[in-house]
Structures are given as C-alpha cells and as structure tokens.
Design brief:
By secondary structure, the chain is of the alpha+beta class. It has two domains: about 150 residues, no CATH class; about 90 residues, no CATH class. The protein contains 13 helices and four strands. This is HNH domain-containing protein.
C-alpha cells in the first residue's frame, strides 16, 4: 500500500465518524387542536424528533480538510502501515496493532499521535460542534485510528472470496471466469528462495476470462510474471495488454 492509498482508507474511516456526529437530533413540539363549535380546544401534544443534517458539499470539504491535515501529521510509519510492513517489523506491529480489533491503542501511543495534530484540526472539530471540548480529541480520534489500522493490517483475503463478476482485464461479465495465479505455482519455491515476495503473497489470484488468461501466459514466462507482473495493476501498465483488452472486450459469443 502507498501512503495515498492509506490516506483514502483513513479518510473513509474519519468520514464515518464525522457524518455520525454531524447528524444532530432536532425536537419539535406538535400540538393537536380539536374544534368545538367556534372554540379551538387543545386535546394533545407530542414531541417529534427529526434529524438535522449539514450541507453535504460543505461537509465533504470539511472532511477533506480534517483528513488531510490529520493524516499528514502522522508518523511516516503510520502513514504507510500495511499487512506486509507489520510482518517484517515486530516493533511496528507491537506499537500499532492491538491483540484484537476492539482493543484501542495504548494511551502513550495515542497521546504521541494527538500531540502533533495541528491545532486547526482540533479547533475546527470543536467549532463545528463535533466535540464538546477541545480536550475530547483523543476520544474522538481513537476509534477512527483503530478502524484505519485494522483495515490496513488485515491479512489478504482467501483467494476464493476475491471472485469478481467481470474479467479483471477486459471487463467482460457475460463469460465464464477462471482464477490466474499472479505468482505462478511452478516458481513458488524459487520466489521464496530468491526473496522476491513474502509467502503470504503466493496465493494471490486474478479472475480472468479464458482468452485473457491465455494472453497473460503468452506475454511473459512464469518467472517474469512472478518478478514483474504479479498484480493486475502492473499487468495493465503494459501497452500490449491494454490494446488486447480494448480489442477482446468487443468480442462477444456468437448466437447459438
């Protein structure tokens, strides 16, 4: 993961917290009136609770500001934290990854993060009415950080759960798909011996139609696929793949 991708995840976590706190309940008293001849008699009254929501465009700009200012104040290792990173650095894992997702960060770690948060962020959250007091920032940001770290450090999904509805190269969704080992099984031993990838990456797959699957294996050897073309994004960087995808996406089954 890059810090840009991590920022996107952090922004979503922060957005959920801000949106939840920005929806303020608003109470109105509703009175029922019954006419009795020429007189109006009050027969009942009740309270109606509605939700008052902020202007969505203004809220989006506010979230962008808070997310950007907060994220860029994080330590570099937190900005770029990932599953792979904590597998290689036990200190990183010990610092940021709690034993389970419901356990908050250690108070000392949380304090160190909050201490470098720009004052403008804390003031804005307070003025916007999202915190009762400026001293509540650590309470506000703690669950956001926990959700962000949990998302970034979770193990990759089992390949079967990654199945897509369309081919990941040509986007055709009306033909059968098969899974392509992004790091071909025939070179797994060499990959580990050479240290090209971590063991947990070996079973990464892409879901491809038969035509695109065959094309990928024609474009490079198994060793080249393992070393250079081990993600769909990398494969799609190639001009020959993009040209192929553009052409094959127009190929449809003939009527039978």
């Amino acid at each position: 993961m890059t810090s840009h991708e991590n920022y996107t995840v952090f922004r979503e976590c922060l957005s959920s917290a801000i949106v939840a706190r920005s929806e303020k309940p608003k109470t109105k008293r509703r009175t029922k009136v019954k006419r009795n001849g020429r007189k109006e008699v009050t027969v009942a009254s009740s309270e109606v609770v509605t939700t008052e929501r902020a202007n969505p465009e203004e809220l989006a700009e506010f979230i962008d500001f808070i997310a950007s200012e907060t994220f860029t104040s994080f330590p570099e290792d937190l900005q770029t934290i990932s599953y792979a990173a904590v597998q290689h650095d036990s200190n990183l894992a010990q610092t940021y990854v709690p034993p389970d997702k419901d356990t908050p960060l250690e108070p000392a770690v949380l304090e160190s993060i909050c201490s470098v948060t720009p004052v403008e962020v804390i003031d804005s959250l307070f003025v916007y009415g999202l915190m009762a007091d400026r001293a509540d920032f650590s309470e506000f940001i703690s669950p956001v950080l926990s959700e962000f770290i949990s998302s970034m450090t979770s193990a990759p999904p089992v390949w079967a759960t990654t199945r897509t509805d369309a081919c990941e190269i040509c986007d055709r969704d009306w033909i059968p798909l098969s899974y392509h080992h992004l790091i071909p099984r025939g070179v797994h031993a060499k990959v580990l011996k050479k240290g090209w990838h971590d063991e947990w990456m070996l079973n990464s797959v892409a879901w491809l139609c038969r035509a695109c699957h065959s094309f990928v294996h024609r474009m490079a050897t198994n060793e080249e696929l393992a070393r250079e073309w081990f993600t769909v994004d990398r494969i799609m960087e190639r001009e020959d793949v993009r040209d192929w995808a553009k052409w094959v996406s127009r190929v449809r089954w003939k009527a039978t």
